[in-house]
Amino acid sequence: MQIFHAIVLGIVEGITEFLPISSTGHLTIVESLLGYKTDSPAITAFTAVVQIGAIAAAVWYFRSDILRVATAWVAGVMSPLKRRNTDYRMGWYVIIGTVPVAVVGLLFKHAIESSLRGLTVVALGLILWSFVLLWADKKATEQRQEVSLRWQDALFIGMMQCVSLIPGVSRSGATIAAGLLRGIDRVTATRMSFFLGIPALLAAGTLQAFTQVKNISEHVGWGSMIVGIVAAYVVGYLSIAWLIRFVSHHDFTVFVWYRIGLGLLILLLVAGGVMG
């Protein structure tokens, strides 16, 4: 893979990973435009591994929160007297919310990496999930904050995260929509989306990095891989900062219309033979 292509794809990953518009879907589109076979093991591996850069940005951005939650969780595990801490419960919520996507991801790994990587699937995912996001946005009461979260919320959001394994749906779009449907405010739902995404995507990227070493070495190149990760990290950090500010004052309508428009455009291009 050319260094320039790796930079472009890293930037795309950084911009789209945390916005409710599907990073995998956008990477699939751009990879196709650049002439890559999107369902090849090497490109599938690149798509998963480059996410490590965006996730590293999330870890660094929320480092104080992560350290506080991790410390409280360990303290609560060691001592029953410290289990009333909100941060202790958040640690369990992240674990509970991560289990469903880990199980489903492993069970359907082959389909996710092959048959579901087509542009038509991406387009349909973008369009159809837009209506779910719009419905959740309009139905949102936003009456609950982080302190009111329960394990049932984490499980529901985690189960919805499984739907994001379909390219085009968007992991953040699925988890944020789930949070809104549970009456959680937008900022808390977005933060929860970040927290659940860190272990899930880090595990997926690390697994691909170790299992696809040969494909990455021979068909991508570790130089290009690393450049893509760095680009995703830098742009991802800026994207997180922007999104946190955005959701404090806006709903997700703009993302809904963008998703629908992009999905329809892809379908037209595929039908016309411009993209395949």
Features of the shown structure:
single chain, globular, mainly alpha, 276 residues, 14 helices
Topology:
Layout: H1 3-16, H2 23-33, H3 41-49, H4 51-61, H5 63-78, H6 86-107, H7 109-113, H8 119-139, H9 151-163, H10 171-181, H11 186-211, H12 213-220, H13 222-247, H14 253-271
Helix pairs in contact: 1-2, 1-13, 2-8, 3-11, 3-12, 4-11, 4-13, 5-6, 6-9, 6-11, 8-10, 8-14, 9-10, 10-11
Describe the protein's architecture and organization.
With 276 residues, the protein is mainly α. The protein has one domain. It is built from 14 helices and no strands. It has helices at residues 3-16, 23-33, 41-49, 51-61, 63-78, 86-107, 109-113, 119-139, 151-163, 171-181, 186-211, 213-220, 222-247, 253-271. The radius of gyration is 18 Å and the shape is globular. The two termini are 20 Å apart. The mean pLDDT is 87.
Summary?
With about 280 residues, the protein is an all-alpha fold.
